[in-house]
Amino acid sequence: MEFCSEKTGSRCEKENGKQPREVSFSRKRKSRRDLFLNANVFSLVDSHVLCISKQLKSEGECSVLKVVQQITERCHTDLERIRAIWIWLCNNIEYDISGFLGLSEKISAPEQVLQSGRGVCSGYSSLCREMCREVGISCVEVSGYGKGIGYKLGQSYQHKKSNHMWNAVQLEGQWYLLDACWGAGTVNTEKQVFIQRYDEFYFLVDPEEFIDSHWPDDSTWQLMEPIVPLEEFEKRVFKTSEFYRLALSIILPKTSILQTVDGEATVLLACAAPLEFSYQLSQVCGDTIKDIDKSCGMVSVSHHSMKLKVLPPTRGLYDLMIFAKPVDSQGRFSWVCSCQINCNDLKCSEKLPQNPFHFWGFLQNAISFGMRKCSYGEDPIISKTGTLEFIFQTSRPLLAMYELAHEEMETSVAKRCIISQIEKDKLTCHVLCPLKGYYRLSVFVKDMQEQNFKNAGNFLIHCMQPVNLNELFPPNLSMHCGPGVKTAEVGLSRPSHPGPIINTNEGRCNITFQSSSDIEVTVVLTKDQDTDNTKHLDINRYVLVTHLENKVTISVCLPESGIYRLALFTGASDKKEFSHICDYVVRCFSNPCWSPFPRVYSMWKKGCVLLEPRSGVLEENSWARFRVRIPGAYKVFLIGQSKSELSVTKNKVWEGKVSTGPTGSVVKLAAKSSDQSPAMDVIMSFDVGSLNRTEDSSG
Q1: What is the predicted pLDDT for the residue at 537?
Q2: How far, in Å, are 611, 614, 696 from residue 592 at the CA level?
Q3: Where is pLDDT greater, at 582 or 15?
Q4: How does DSSP classify residue 136?
Q5: Please, how many CA atoms are within 13 Å of residue 535, restricted to the half-sphere of its CB?
Q6: I need a labelling partner for 248 at 20 to 30 A (CA). Which of 76, 82, 431, 449 fits?
Q7: Global confidence as pTM
Q8: What percent of the chain has pLDDT over 90?
Q9: Which of 294, 270, 415 is nearest to 356 (CA)?
Q10: Over the stretch 194-239, which tens digit does the pLDDT of each residue have?
Q11: CA gap 459, 444 in Å, rounded
């Protein structure tokens, strides 16, 4: 961003060449806001001036007096008159690029500026002075230094001629500052063109803000006490007009050049309204500038502040530009301020992850997405064990997705480092870090019926001790892990295991839900990496689902150690269509060796309970005792080497024994529903073999 900033003479006089009267200060100075709340109060004046301007251009040459009379004919106060002059200057005079570059004589005399429609900065200020004279407003030209065309961060003005000219006008006995040259637009020095871009900021600017970019030769025209020395002016952080328009203020740094401390530099801005921020870091190498990627900085934003931590990749000098825009604005970011960073020491050799979203922590308007707060703050989150649990409180049910990034981690691995749980009023994300160093965890959310996910936050993680790659979560997990909104939707409640991760030392567990009477649950157990022991096993025989009237029990026994995915599906009892509702991750790092459950068939239905034996493998050549509940059964039989009928107790438990026979035999549990049933229905079957595994499965 460039400003029109140039002068041809060092003048600070009124229209007759005399020095202005002594400027006095009152203890309570009126600010611009005391004069007018915003530019809307001038809408009639502004529109009249713009309309008259078109008429005057069509008429050809005219005098200063004629222009002033016509643009101020509807003005009633000196404030409105100076406003009319300001608007006319900003919209009818272009900057004299040719004169500034020395390609032609500079245009600065009022009549020349008026007739040509061009002028350097002193042309704007001299014409402004003449126009004010015609309406009786006291106006002076002020010479000094402006941080405009050609300005470089950290440059010195010592022992150099001043380079700019602006005006001071007197209203209601008090002097105010304005710069019509900078208000008219900007200069593109590369293309050598003037870009008309009206800037309201430079109209009657408060001295405390004006001094950041304009330092007068005569310190009287700072219009403030105490006086700001030239050395301090040079060291001030460079701020654009947009900085003030967005109501920003600087907390850190205090000067325009930051020195790194332990390889790190911090910029802290305060803001009156929610804003979004971005930045550009460039390394200064002599006359060349090299852009640095955003992995060297961390932006964190709250409702009232922005903190940027910069970790330069190498020693040297850097230019830092900061950009901002209002939250939810569809427009571009605007440059708001700049400073330099002098790096003499490096933080570390570990590279930060790329962050395409440019900020860390919660997005400013994440609350509008339904996000309330996070269990972690905005600073880098330290993981000493390679595991983390993020909990996001929400104001309404949301769907969530996550992205974990590390400079050296493949996407396929990253997907196995995340478990997502979605509940009515919170989101939980379990994270595994398989590598040392820095990670970015990005959170994306949307409402249940919304189409697109929105980035709600980005969190920087620093892992000190990573987990083993063998400990990663199973692949292809659903975004719905553990009980949550989907289990509640289908009528499953009061889970025995409220979290999505189940750790079992014994290698077995029972997961229970309260359930409505009209749903049925089925499950699928998978293991990502089969071993020689499991590759030939029917892994789903290591899960048994038992349905009671208002309770579902999922019994799990594991054939060996490892990490398993347990997928739950539900459907109506009278239909065969099942829908996925959630996943559990079952982990066992001991050495279990459980036998599988018996095979179950379609007649294994609600109310059926296997009490004994729980194992699906029976000892060879032995008598096996059975106890089972089978609602609606007329007779129950065990069919092995022989057929035996079970007897029913007063508690409606069918009991009996059967001879198992040799290894390789099968024992079947069957039932007849009535005396007229032509055949028996097989409910479950048991293998017969030598029990090298744990004798009894999960109970």
Answers
A1: 85
A2: 22, 16, 12
A3: 582
A4: T
A5: 4
A6: 82
A7: 0.76
A8: 75
A9: 294
A10: 999 999 999 999 999 999 999 999 999 999 999 999 999 999 999 9
A11: 12
**Could you say which DSSP state residue 352 is in?**
P
What amino acid is encoded at 210 in this protein?
A: F
CA distance linking residue 24 with residue 224, whole number of Å? 10
Q: What is the largest CA-CA distance in the chain?
A: 128
Handedness of CA 12, 14, 16, 18 (dihedral sign): negative
Structure tokens at 435: 């590598």
pLDDT at 692: 60
| Arithmetic mean of pLDDT, 321-348 | 90
Strand arrangement of the beta sheet that strand 174-178 belongs to: 174-178, 164-171, 139-146, 214-216
Give me 18's structure tokens: 């005399």
Question: How crowded is the C-beta side of 634, counted as CA atoms within 13 Å?
Answer: 10
CB proximity list for 203: less than 8 A, separation 6 or greater: 32, 39, 83, 86, 178, 183
Q: Which CATH class is domain 599-689?
A: mainly beta
Q: Give me the mean pLDDT over the 422-450 stretch.
A: 96
Both structure tokens of 651: 């508690």
Q: What is the pLDDT of residue 2?
A: 37
Which residue reads 């032609």 in tokens? Answer: 104
CB burial class (10 A; 0-12, 13-18, 19+) of residue 346? middle
User: Domain 380-471: which topology?
Assistant: Immunoglobulin-like (2.60.40)
Residue 698 has pLDDT above 50, yes or no: no
The encoded tokens of residue 7 equal 């002068």
DSSP 49-90: HHHHHHHHHHH----HHHHHHHHTTT--SHHHHHHHHHHHHH
Cβ contacts of 390 within 8 Å, gap of 6 or more = 374, 375, 376, 428, 429, 430, 431, 441, 443, 459
Token output for 29: 């100075």
**Nearby residues of 36 by Cβ (< 8 Å), 6 or more positions away:** 42, 79
State the fold for domain 485-588. Immunoglobulin-like (2.60.40)
Q: Using only C-alpha atoms, what is the Rg of the chain?
A: 39
CATH topology of domain 32-234: C8orf32 fold (3.10.620)
* Structure token pair of residue 303: 């409702």
**Domain 245-343 classification at class level:** mainly beta
Per this entry, what is the length of the chain? Answer: 699
Q: What is the pLDDT of residue 696?
A: 54
